[in-house]
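Write out this protein's structure.
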Amino acid sequence: MTTLAPERWAFFAHAYNFGDTSRAIEVALSMKATGAIVKFFHRGGTYVDRIVSAGLEPTLLLPEISDGQNAILMDMDQHRAPVGTPLPYTVEQLVAMVESELAALREFEPDGVYCGLNLSCMISVPHARWPMVTLVPTALCPAFFRAELASFPDAMDTQLLRHLVPKWVKRKIINRIMLGDVAKKSALAFNQVREKYGLPPIFNFTSLVRGDLTLLPDLPELSGLAADALPPGYAYSGPLFARIDLPVPAEAHAVFARPGTKIYCAMGSSVPPELLKRVIAILRSVPEFNVVCATTHLVAPSELGPASDRFFATRFLPAHSVNPLADIAVTHGGQGTVQTAVWSGTPVVGIAMQWEQQANLDGLVRVGAGLRLPLYGVNEHSLVAAIRQAAEPSYLERMSKLQSMVRASDGAREAVRHMRALIGRSESLRTK
């Protein structure tokens, strides 16, 4: 009887991004549970320790991505950088990154590669013709823009635009732009390197992160995009979010044991620190609010003021354990953060930094399970009013319906099922 060799999967993640790293970890662990051999690669970043603590033994590839380069990527992501800002890599650095990936992957000889948001993989992997898997928010699927589901980014919505241009016009504009050549100027060096490796140029962000299989860690009920509207090569896996193996601190339990509205604030790893400080200052000013906050690496907890019987902050919290204790989750709208709130059945008040986060929050708004405050409209009156509105029983009832859908799904297992099926139909993509 012939014994098949175990599958071999290479995993990459942009380890400066908590969401990308945590989703890659969840899928890698699920893939490893099938008996596959899994190897994790990275180029440095804030969350490498998360990969290590998951027991995945990551390998550092050189050259590393610097803190400064990541800061530019974050500025581009959140519309703080001008449109057309170049990706922060020189041609020489990208070539070195591609070559190090090709060498590492040839040594490992994977059956497939999960690329995460490691952009140089979008050159090395298709060049070498390994089956390529990407996992991206639904808001980076071209069908999302064709359905005109994206809202105009708050960070770009100036006072003049708000006064002169109706919302529906701006919605049409942004959805049309995102399907055009919006990344052409940003990707000049990137496309020079793609040409060097025999690949066609990429001119928009949906093409930049498209794989042979592109997984969307979402449900149609959350995204608003029907499953039968997905293009070929795209598939829903179901929600994927981190379950950090940490106890809930006694201080958090104590804060939430008080009478009043219990608020869990988690603004992710990339929002401006000043916004988090402003939000917490507003929440702390309301006597009936009891607030627990996860600051990640954004700020030191002490920067938000001293702990009290109504307030506790720490760097990291097990969101899947803290969220169910809260009445309301205040979040930036990151996909994992939103999905954790849904899994917990906790209505959301969101403040998005960019259009993808807006999309995640807009999905909750459509079904009446959350509210989104525009970035330019965050003040004491609007935030407090939104929290009180989201605390109404109707929001909890509608969130409970979403909760049952999310609890019935297993995003990591479904992602692995799609990935293994890809190997079965991708044998002809590459001659070993």
